[in-house]
TrEMBL record:
InterPro entries: Ankyrin_rpt, Ankyrin_rpt-contain_sf
Protein name according to UniProt: Uncharacterized protein LOC108662820
SMART domains: ANK (SM00248)
Protein species of origin: Theobroma cacao
Length: 188
C-alpha cells in the first residue's frame, strides 16, 4: 500500500511541476509578469531552468515574443546574469539570438546592456547574431549589431563575412544602409 501511495504522490508532484512549466511558458509568451513572478518566487530555479522540450528558458520565450517589460523584470531578478543570459537552447540559440530573429531591438538592447558580449555569441548553425539579423531581414537589428560588433568583424572567418555581405545584398540591406557606417566589404 505504501508503494502505491508514493507513486500517487510522485504523480501529483509531476503534474503540478508540468502545470507550473506551462503557466510560466504562457506567462512569458504573453508578458504576464504577475503569473511568472509567483512561480519564480515559489521556486527560484525556474528563473533559469529550461521550460520546454527544446531547452528554452522563460527568457528565451519572452525574448522571442518581444515581451520587453517582461524581459527587463526577468533579467533584473537574475543573480548570475552572464551565465544566465548565455544559456542556449537545443538549437544553440541564446535568448539574445531569439530577440534578433524576432527583430526586437528593445529586448536586444536590454540584454546587451547587461552582457555586451551577447552580440558575439554564435547561435544556431554557428551563426553570429549579425548574420542572423541579416538572414531574417531585420534591418534595424542588423544596423545595431553592425555598430556593436564592427571592431570584431576583422576577426571573423572570410567565409562568414562573405555570407553576411551577400545576404545583405539578397535581403536588400546593403544598398539601403551602406551610408550608415563603413561598408562591410572593406573586411573582404
Amino acid at each position: 500500500m505504501a508503494c502505491n501511495n508514493f507513486s500517487f504522490q510522485h504523480g501529483q508532484k509531476k503534474h503540478l511541476y508540468r502545470k507550473k512549466l506551462l503557466t510560466l511558458y504562457t506567462a512569458a509568451l504573453n508578458g504576464d509578469w504577475r503569473s511568472a513572478e509567483s512561480i519564480i518566487k515559489s521556486d527560484p530555479t525556474f528563473l533559469n531552468s529550461s521550460i520546454t522540450d527544446d531547452y528554452k528558458t522563460a527568457l528565451h520565450i519572452a525574448a522571442g515574443a518581444k515581451q520587453t517589460a517582461f524581459v527587463k523584470k526577468l533579467v533584473n531578478l537574475m543573480q548570475n546574469q552572464e551565465s544566465d543570459l548565455d544559456l542556449q537552447d537545443e538549437n544553440d540559440n541564446t535568448a539574445f539570438c531569439l530577440a534578433v530573429i524576432a527583430g526586437s531591438v528593445p529586448v536586444a538592447k536590454i540584454l546587451m546592456k547587461k552582457v555586451p558580449q551577447l552580440a558575439l555569441i554564435r547561435g544556431g548553425k554557428n551563426s553570429t547574431p549579425l548574420f542572423i539579423a541579416v538572414i531574417f531581414g531585420r534591418h534595424d537589428m542588423a544596423r545595431l549589431l553592425y555598430r556593436e560588433t564592427e571592431s570584431h568583424l576583422k576577426h571573423l572567418e572570410l567565409e562568414h563575412l562573405q555570407h553576411i555581405f551577400f545576404t545583405c545584398i539578397e535581403t536588400d540591406m546593403f544598398c539601403k544602409h551602406a551610408y550608415l557606417s563603413p561598408p562591410l566589404y572593406i573586411y573582404l
